[in-house]
Design goal:
This protein is mostly beta strands and 1505 residues long. Helix content is 10%, strand content 36%. The protein contains 13 helices and 91 strands. The strands form 25 sheets. Strands 79, 80, 81, 82, 83, 84, 85, 86, 87, 88, 89, 90 and 91 form a 13-stranded antiparallel β-sheet that branches.
Length: 1505
């Protein structure tokens, strides 16, 4: 006790001395700060614990010198149990370890299990409370036999170093009654003599319960509900069944009994089984045992003599003439009843022997119940029970638990606990499983308790002398080993005991002063400034850092663990330029101090400040000289206000730059007079001015602020008044003179220059026509005469309005007066025409537009019945009826009896219909009742969806739909003229051209008329072909129609940022509700199809496989040679005089274009995307082109503001090899890469010319060449860079735009193109061979070719002649050449059917967009047949591919194995093949063999063959 007290006192004094020295250092270090540090130490009692108060107002923190380890004080007393089959989370018990340290300084204990890697956790321990619950479900019974479980819990503290203790605990798994008793047999059958006396044994039953204790004890009983139960009774303990009364049943009778076995558990479990007992003759006796073991047989578990007799039984048959008996060792249903043949039986005559059949294990099964059955020739049997008990032997070696290490603090006195080791012996009895412990080396400085395994120290340790010890522990059991005779079983394990460190050295900073330079004043919160560090000889020291002084406004924070100093609050150079921090390091007992200097860097973080608010009153429409207003701002970052502030001023509103400008002196000037009055002017102009420091240079350092200048405009009388009456004004005919309307007017000037107004007829009014019929008195318009609408229907009266301003201004407005109609004229017969396009959708896919609708036109109003009548407002006086009667009306139309509107019903077929009506009219007394006949000619034409999807389009300006369809006096309308002109342009009939959509599209500025049309020869022509050809005749068409064309190929995305801010794509919206245009004598009902903008580029569409591909999951399975994701033909070749057109891509804010170029020429146009013609009505000149100049790629890009040129002078691509070219189009940059080279030397980068940001084009994409003269087009548009007109020679493949693959093999229109690059490109190669030698070689080759052709022609003629004589009922592919192949689709080249036509149409010159030789208007029979074939290919009900069998065999798919099998049936009905005669002459031989006779055959029957 005295020694411990002295030790504590010395340690305390030493600690105080060290701490005092540290305090003096801190006081010296911080003496220059305004805030001084206060430090104190407090002692409590005689304990060696020292409490230290922190600096600068921080809360006191406890420092502990001695770290005590946690101890399980009740480890040996834990006896936990848990019942089997309990759910996870079941509470077991709670462990607890004591630690004498304070909680915050090592006294907080956490718990966890010690386990081997990969071991399944079967329990869970709460790390804070030590509460242990189950993490698995246990089963104590067979086959698991989980009777106990061992866990090792480690308790660890939070001290430095961390110390711990371990405790190994056995958890007993308690049994519950969860198993029913099981009989040792599946069924019981026995025989009983008829004369067996009462009380004698009849049979024996046995059952086993694998539960434990009372749960395994069973009792037997007979079911009282059994009809034969009264004849027997059963011993409840051993299951022996006795005869209860004399048998009165005849031999052969079977007693039916049911036995029940029930265990003694709570609640009890039971099972039942059926017993069959058969009555036999009285003279038949069952066998009987004459020798059985007297008591249980005891075997040691290591007994292994498999030949020795364990038990012997003898029996007699009780049949005098037959002594043979049959023994059987009954196999039970549990291991205790020999389920796994642990024992076997051998018999000899009347004796049977029990032998060992498997190894015994006491730890698994302690006893066995064997049932031996003997049977004689009467099939009567007897049974006996043999009990075998297994005795435990010492055959298990003690095994240590998982704990392999422990620890003890240095300088602890001898006897200090270190750890507890535990070893377990798996033997089943205490005679063999008690373990004692000893050290293998008695010289180790530790001792161990032989019973508990607790290890304690024998001396004080010094960690600096030795950090750990390895000691070997031997665990020995308490009896002689069955494994090693003469010795005890023992196990050993080496344990590592670490000597833990104590805190007895102070920490030291690595530097006295840390300096952090140039910390930006706008540094983000939590940004790292610097890091301080310490060194400490103690490994147990846990040094914490803190800032104790100099941290003004808490500008910084230090991590107590890492020493990182970070920004904590906003810094401001204008407030504090440098910080000097005092930093403390404290390890719980000792401390050290260092200084940290942080210098702040000045940044431009303050925007300019305007010195005042500004306003000015000026006169409108006046241009002022000099500064109208002078604004001033300064930069707060510049301390000297008199120094140059370097401020740049600019206007914010772009639209005001037309009128105002400001210089860097702040002088705001007028460049154009300002307008005060509506609709474009304002009485108050707010001018926003931005001031940018650092000269306004672009970059993150330039800061900006805004102010407003208010300009108040005074009014001058510069606007004339105008009428505001609602028009038209209606004055009915036949009315006497009177007041028509009160005139109202408005003036945009102020009230001083506005009303009151004076009104008068303007001098421009016709004196006879206007002044004689109208007059103005004050503000009233009066009529002077009565009017007749039939003479004139309307008047436009010029009214002069004068305001009251200075000077006075007069304006002239036209007042529209309509003479209202009164029914004062009888009608006459009339005739009108109505043309209707009936739109029907079909299963057709369009690559141009992605929206599709289904259905047909609903009931549709198509026009009114027309009669000739000078009156036109008299519809209420008319009635319309069918002629000759309502019952005989047309089934496809209805007419409204009051309005005369004709309705076409859904499903009306194509055709021309003449409708007749009886029209009556009555307006007594002016118009008496009368009637006339009216006829209406209705023409209905069906138009498919394909025509709409592949339609061209024209947008006219300032033309209405009514003007477009009405007869212009020459017998035709503008629509008719367009129809005829298109048919002539495309060299096709009028029936093959449809102008099917006519609808008005009004806008704020202009009135547009959108017209859509289609044309076809065999298939429908693609839109690119239609639109591009119309472009060539635009001027002629405008002249012929007397209408101005605004746009060809209607594109709502043409003008940037009108419909969409960024990306824009056109979507064709189709509707089955028609668009109707009505006039008196003609009406037109067209298809509702209009283009709408969609502000996106990304479209998700269903998988559609092209070129005969087959959809499979989310991709296409393509025929050989088609490599695109949708089976596109991804390549096309050109030979120097061709081109191909494709649909243009959408206008995307980001476009990624890729293509592979294999070029054989150094100078050529690869592709062009842009306008085909200059359009003065549209301010759009966007284009994109890629060309080769001297073999290097040149890219020209024009977003509409000017052309940007990118060139790559590194990669030479005109070498006949494929090169990948990538083009990236973005708002702020344009990039071009060749062969994926992203290095600065081979990548091209440029910025587009502002302000336009997106490529907007509606012209087609042209590959390989162009159809236009670029020089002429560039002159009209003013392009600085001009694309070349030289055509491409080579192959272009894998053309994509934003991952969309172009189907290059099917261009919309082309000239001399080579889809698939099938034709090789010839290149001249010189080998240095003499010319004469080359000529000789060519002559030889020509002679060989001629000879070969002669042989081939001769053979073909001979084969053809022999084939005609061949008497073969099968026809092969050779014969199919005559008529196109077998029943499958023929894969022949349909282009041979096409009439080659390379010249222009008869009425055109030889040019198309200045490109001679285009195949434009020729009827395309090849395309028509290809299209129909592709429709069949896409039919899901037929094979998606062609097979050689379709060509080789007629009748492919027939179930008959051969033609001969047709006659192999025995049924006469099956032998009639009369229909063969209808198959044509090629089946004549088959018809003769199997069909009807010649006299039965109908004459001249021949099929389509």
């Amino acid at each position: 006790m005295w020694r411990e007290s002295r030790w504590a006192t010395l340690l305390l004094l030493g600690s105080l001395a060290v701490a005092s020295a540290q305090f003096n250092k801190a006081r010296e270090h911080t003496s220059h700060h305004v805030t001084r540090l206060r430090h104190s130490r407090h002692l409590q009692g005689n304990t060696p614990n020292i409490y230290t108060a922190s600096f600068a107002g921080t809360s006191p923190k406890l420092a502990v010198k001695d770290n005590h380890k946690p101890l399980f004080t009740e480890c040996l007393t834990y006896r936990p149990t848990v019942q089997e089959e309990q759910p996870q989370g079941t509470y077991v018990f709670t462990v607890h370890a004591e630690d004498r340290d304070p909680p915050e300084m090592g006294g907080t204990v956490t718990y966890k299990f010690v386990s081997t890697p990969g071991e399944k956790e079967r329990f869970h321990v709460d790390p804070e409370t030590g509460r242990i619950t189950t993490a698995d479900v246990f089963d104590r019974d067979e086959p698991s036999r989980e009777k106990e479980a061992y866990i090792t819990v480690r308790a660890s503290d939070n001290g430095q170093p961390q110390l711990d203790d371990a405790c190994t605990i056995k958890i007993v798994i308690e049994d519950i009654n969860d198993n029913q008793p099981v009989f040792d047999k599946v069924s019981y059958s026995e025989s009983v003599p008829q004369d067996l006396p009462s009380g004698r044994e009849v049979m024996r039953i046995s059952a086993t319960d694998i539960d434990d204790g009372n749960n395994s004890i069973v009792h037997y009983s007979l079911d009282t509900n059994s009809p034969d139960q009264a004849y027997f009774y059963i011993d409840p303990d051993n299951g022996v069944i006795f005869l209860n009364k004399t048998i009165d049943k005849v031999p052969g009778y079977k007693f039916k009994l049911s036995a029940i076995v029930k265990d003694m558990g709570d609640p009890p479990q039971q099972s039942s089984i059926t017993l069959d007992i058969q009555v036999v003759e009285s003279n038949k006796k069952s066998p009987s045992f004459i020798e059985v073991p007297d008591g249980p047989i005891r075997l040691k578990e290591n007994y292994a003599d498999f030949n020795a007799h364990i038990a012997t039984v003898r029996a007699v048959s009780n049949i005098p003439e037959e002594k043979k008996v049959l023994f059987e060792l009954v196999m039970g249903q549990t291991e205790q009843t020999n389920k796994w043949h642990t024992f076997v039986l051998e018999s000899e005559a009347d004796t049977a022997y029990i032998k060992l059949g498997n190894h015994l294990d006491f730890e698994k099964i302690t006893d066995y119940t064997l049932t031996v059955r003997v049977q004689n020739n009467y099939n009567l049997a007897a049974e006996t029970i043999i009990q075998i008990e297994v005795e435990d032997v010492n055959d298990n070696i003690p095994i240590f638990s998982e704990v392999r290490s422990g620890s003890v603090l240095e300088n602890e006195p001898p006897g200090t606990p270190v750890m507890q080791v535990r070893a377990f012996d798996a033997d089943g009895t205490s005679a063999n499983n008690q373990v004692t412990y000893e050290l293998a080396d008695p010289s180790d400085p530790f001792s161990i308790d032989s019973i508990t395994g607790n290890i304690t120290t024998l001396k004080e340790f010094d960690r600096e002398e030795q950090t750990y010890y390895n000691i070997k522990i031997i665990a020995t059991d308490n009896s002689e080993s069955a494994l090693i005779p003469g010795k005890h079983n023992s196990g050993q394990q080496v344990f590592r005991i670490e000597i833990a460190d104590k805190n007895d050295n102070p920490p030291h900073f690595t530097q006295d002063t840390y300096i952090a330079e140039s910390i930006a004043e706008n540094a983000n919160i939590n940004v790292l400034v610097t890091q301080v560090a310490t060194v400490d000889k103690d490994s147990a020291s846990n040094v914490s850092f803190s800032i104790v002084a100099g941290n003004t406004y808490d500008a910084f924070v230090i991590s107590p663990i890492t020493g990182e100093i970070r920004v904590n609050n906003k810094l401001d150079y204008e407030n504090i330029t440098s910080y000097s921090l005092d930093v403390r390091a404290f390890d719980g007992l000792y401390e050290d101090y260092a200084k940290v200097i942080i210098n702040i860097e000045n940044l431009n973080d303050n925007p300019p400040i305007f010195v005042a608010n500004y306003s000015k009153t000026i006169e409108e429409e006046k241009l002022y000289e000099g500064c109208m207003v002078k604004v001033e701002a300064y930069d707060p970052d510049i301390k000297d206000r008199n120094a140059p502030q370097n401020i740049h001023y600019s206007l914010v509103k772009h639209e005001q730059k037309e009128f105002l400008k400001i210089d860097d002196d702040g002088c705001l000037r007028l460049t154009k007079p300002l307008d005060r009055d509506p609709p474009t002017g304002y009485s108050t102009w707010q001018v926003l001015i931005v001031a940018a420091d650092q000269g306004g240079k672009l970059g993150s350092d330039s800061l900006r602020s805004t102010t407003e200048v208010i300009l108040q405009l005074t009014d001058i009388n510069d606007n004339a008044p105008f009428l505001t009456n609602t028009e038209p004004v209606i004055w009915y005919e036949n009315e006497p003179p009177g007041e028509v309307v009160t005139l109202t007017a408005k003036d945009y000037d102020s009230k001083e220059n506005g009303p009151p107004f004076t009104f008068a007829l303007n001098d421009s009014a016709s004196s006879l026509d206007i002044r004689s019929k109208f007059q103005i008195q004050g503000n009233k318009l009066w009529t002077l005469v009565s009017f007749d609408r039939e003479e004139r229907k309307e008047y436009r009266i010029p009214v002069a309005i004068t305001d009251s301003g200075t000077p006075r201004m007069t304006g002239v407005s036209i007042l529209h007066v309509v003479i209202g109609d009164k029914n004062d004229n009888p009608m006459a017969s009339g005739h009108s025409n109505i043309f209707v396009y009936n739109y029907r959708t079909e299963m057709y896919f369009s690559e141009i537009y992605s929206w599709r609708y289904y259905g047909e036109a609903p009931d549709t109003e198509i026009g009114r019945v027309y009669v000739l009548d000078p009156d036109d407002w008299d519809l209420p006086d008319k009635r319309f009826m069918w002629l000759p009667s309502y019952e005989q009306r047309s089934p496809y139309f209805d007419v409204h009896s009051n309005t005369g509107m004709i309705t076409m019903k859904t499903g009306t077929p194509n055709g021309t219909y003449m409708l007749k009506f009886n029209v009556t009219e009555q307006n007594e007394p002016i118009v008496p009742f009368h009637w006339v006949e009216a006829t209406v000619n209705v023409t209905i034409k069906e138009i498919p969806e394909e025509a709409v999807d592949k339609s061209g389009s024209i947008r006219f300006i300032n033309v209405t739909a009514e003007e477009f369809i009405v007869d212009e006096g020459d017998g035709s309308s503008k629509k008719d003229k367009l129809h005829h002109r298109l048919a002539k342009l495309y060299n096709t009939s009028l029936d093959n051209v449809d102008v099917f959509t006519v609808f008005n599209k009004p806008t704020v500025k202009d009135a547009f008329l959108d017209v859509r049309f289609s044309a076809h020869g065999s298939p429908y022509y693609p839109p690119e072909k239609l639109d591009s050809m119309v472009t060539t005749i635009q001027e002629e068409l405008e002249k012929e129609l007397n209408a101005r064309i605004y746009m060809i190929n209607i594109d709502e995305c043409m003008v940037e940022k009108v419909e969409c801010e960024d990306s824009c794509r056109n979507v064709l919206m189709k509707n089955n509700v028609p668009l109707s245009v009505y006039t008196n004598t003609s009406s037109f009902v067209g298809v509702s199809a209009r283009v709408e903008p969609e502000c996106t580029c990304e479209v998700e569409s269903r998988i559609v496989c092209l070129n005969g591909g087959t959809p499979f999951a989310d991709k296409c399975e393509c025929p050989e040679g088609l490599t695109g994701p949708r089976c596109e033909q991804t390549s096309i070749g050109f030979h120097g005089d061709g081109w191909a057109m494709y649909p243009p891509p959408p206008a995307c804010h980001e476009g990624h274009m890729t293509l592979t170029v294999t070029s054989h020429t150094s100078n050529s146009l690869v592709f062009y995307l842009g306008p085909l013609k200059y359009n003065p009505l549209l301010d759009v000149q966007d284009f994109l082109s890629l060309e080769l100049v001297d073999g290097y790629p040149i890219l020209l890009v024009n977003y509409g503001s000017g052309t940007t040129r990118l060139n790559n002078s590194v990669v030479h691509v005109a070498d006949g090899k494929p090169h990948l070219i990538e083009i990236v189009l973005m708002k702020s940059s344009i990039e071009m890469f060749v062969d994926r080279c992203k290095l600065s030397t081979c990548m091209s980068l440029a910025a587009p010319i502002a302000p336009r940001e997106i490529l907007n084009v509606n012209g087609p994409l042209q590959l390989g060449g162009a159809t236009i003269d670029f020089r002429h087009l560039a002159h009209q548009f003013g392009w600085q860079h001009i694309p070349t007109n030289q055509h491409f020679v080579g192959c272009i493949s894998n053309f994509t735009y934003n991952d969309y693959y172009y189907n290059l093999g099917e261009p919309s229109v082309h000239r001399k193109a080579d889809p698939g690059c099938q034709l090789s490109v010839s290149t001249a190669v010189t080998f240095g061979i003499d010319t004469n030698f080359l000529v000789a070689i060519l002559v030889c080759i020509a002679i060989l070719v001629i000879l070969l052709l002669a042989v081939v022609v001769h053979r073909r003629r001979a084969d053809a002649w022999a084939e005609k004589e061949l008497d073969d009922i099968r026809e092969n592919i050779i014969a199919y050449e005559d008529e196109g192949g077998g029943e499958g689709d023929a894969g022949y080249d349909l282009h041979v059917l096409r009439q080659m036509y390379d010249g222009p149409p008869p009425d055109q010159d030889g040019t198309f967009m200045n490109a001679p030789g285009v195949v434009g208007a020729t009827p395309d029979i090849s395309g028509f047949l290809d299209d129909k074939k592709s429709l069949l290919d896409r039919d899901p009900d037929i094979n998606p591919y062609d097979d050689v069998r379709h060509y080789a065999y007629e009748g492919d798919g027939n179930t008959s194995g051969s033609l001969s099998s047709l006659a192999s049936c025995t049924d006469d009905g099956d032998l009639k093949f009369n229909y063969l005669s209808t198959f044509g002459p090629r089946f004549r031989k088959l018809a003769d063999m199997y069909g009807e006779s010649d006299d039965e055959r109908a004459p001249h029957e021949e099929s389509w063959c």
